[in-house]
Write a structure and sequence with these properties.
By secondary structure, the protein is an alpha/beta fold. The chain has 12 helices and 16 strands. The chain has 2 domains: about 1-180 and about 220-250, NAD(P)-binding Rossmann-like Domain (Rossmann fold, 3-Layer(aba) Sandwich); about 195-220 and about 255-295 and about 310-330, UDP-galactose 4-epimerase, domain 1 (Alpha-Beta Complex), CATH 3.90.25.
């Protein structure tokens, strides 16, 4: 089996790659487990890091908005995990770049997979930014899409494209609507939700951090462990498990910025902990306030998708899985 991950140099791309290499196999179109013979990681820069020095791994750098490039990377692919995207605040700040990468890039992936004529599996990452405006206390599988940002619009359009290409029999696609992934390794980026990781990650490495939202700001989060578990479970489920919508809304746990800060103190041990400073940014606050304050997906629960037990589990998992790597990143920065 040949597997492609676009956005393969990113945090989730590399996490998923390591898990696939460790697992060694994925289910094919008939539900039979097949060994992964090649795993291609595609991004704007080359994917590097621990656990990727495997003979099955191929690395390619290029532009997701270039169709010829995308067509070349998906040749012979049985499965494509499409993660490549410009993040929320970045897509809002640069309208043209957001649509070039998030919409044109997604269409390129789907068209390249269609051209294969082999009905490949495609997993597309969407976002809670597909919702917005006047929302219920918790969004559900049936809540209408009402995006209030360019990023949310781009992800919503991507969901409909995956649905239609699947309906036509060009590919077997599924979109997964993700909560905020917390805690990510790396440095703060242009995502409006980046603070949710920063207020845990930076203090645990002894670095002070500025949080651009109020302490009461709510975020629905899911740990990287549970997210990668979800990707693999979603990939191997039969095609009819998701209904005609072809989109799965993942549940998460509801936390506030203050609760994230407080969780660090409970798990600091003998580490010198960095300080969180609250410095309100109205533009970031507006984006975050427009996102769902809760998630209630019955479909995800019925299909066996798990969430973290509580915020303490999220922080413990970060310390166990990623803190050593984050310390290296912090020292280099």
């Amino acid at each position: 089996m040949r597997v492609v991950i676009t956005g393969g140099a990113g945090f989730l791309g590399k996490k998923l790659a390591r898990r696939i290499l460790q697992q060694g196999a994925l289910a094919d179109a008939n539900g039979q487990s097949r060994p992964v013979s090649e795993l291609l990681l595609f991004d704007v820069g080359e994917a590097r890091g621990p656990g990727l020095d495997d003979p099955r791994v191929k690395v390619r750098a290029g532009d997701i908005a270039n169709f010829a490039t995308v067509q070349s990377i998906v040749q012979g692919a049985d499965t494509v995990f499409h993660f490549a995207a410009v993040v929320s605040a970045g897509a809002e700040a640069d309208f043209d770049l957001g649509y070039k990468v998030n919409l044109d890039g997604t269409r390129n992936v789907l068209e390249a997979c269609r051209a294969l004529g082999t009905n490949p599996r495609v997993v597309f990452t969407s976002s809670l930014a597909a919702f917005g405006g006047d929302l219920p206390p918790a969004v559900t599988d049936d809540t209408p899409l009402t995006p209030q940002t360019s990023y949310g619009a781009q992800k919503s359009i991507g969901e409909f494209l995956v649905r239609d290409y699947t309906r036509k029999g060009f590919l077997r696609g599924t979109a997964v609507r993700l909560p905020t992934i917390c805690v990510r390794t790396g440095l703060p980026n242009k995502a409006a939700s980046t603070w949710a990781s920063s207020v845990v990650r930076e203090p645990l490495t002894g670095v002070d951090v500025v949080c651009p939202v109020t302490p009461e700001t709510v975020m629905v989060v899911l740990s990287p462990r549970k997210t990668v578990d979800a990707f693999l479970r979603l990939h191997d489920l039969p095609a009819d498990a998701f209904g005609p919508g072809r989109t799965l809304l993942l549940n998460g746990i509801k936390v506030t910025a203050r609760e994230l800060e407080q969780a660090v103190g409970r798990h600091a041990g003998n580490r010198r902990v960095g300080k969180v400073t609250w410095q309100h940014d109205p533009s970031i606050q507006k984006i975050c306030d427009g996102w769902p304050q809760g998630i209630d997906s019955r479909r995800a629960r019925a299909l066996g998708f798990e969430i973290d037990r509580d915020l303490d589990e999220v922080v413990r998992n970060f310390i166990a899985d990623d803190l050593d790597e984050q310390m290296k990143i912090a020292r280099a920065a």
